[in-house]
Amino acid sequence: MDPEPDPARFRDLMLDGEPGFEEVLRCVFGIQNHEARLYLELLEAPDSTVTELAETVDRDRSNVNRGLATLLEKGLADRRRRLLDSGGHVYQYRATDPETARELMHETLDEWAAYVHERIDEFPCATDGQSR
Length: 132
Prior knowledge:
mainly alpha, WH_DNA-bd_sf, Arc Repressor Mutant, subunit A, two-stranded antiparallel sheet
């Protein structure tokens, strides 16, 4: 997680009356809409290639590659190399299972809460001789 999380992400989530899994995923990991969509697509179609994903989500391959790099960095996906019969290889991507993703979200949110608690503890209190 980022050393100093962006509180605006969490504020937006709290203001949403009933956020769904995708909104929480975006908020907690600080990912964009298309990256959350890639994650959900990988849940539906494991072992997809960049080309297959680009067609499915209607985005160019470079955009899909960047989104997948973000998902890999956040621990929300992994990739495997598959050798092609014609020679060469292709990477296939798979979403982290939802249970593990939930655990990662809890851990990330707990880290953010600990960060906020540290900032709160840095506030001077009235017994420190500080007035409000």
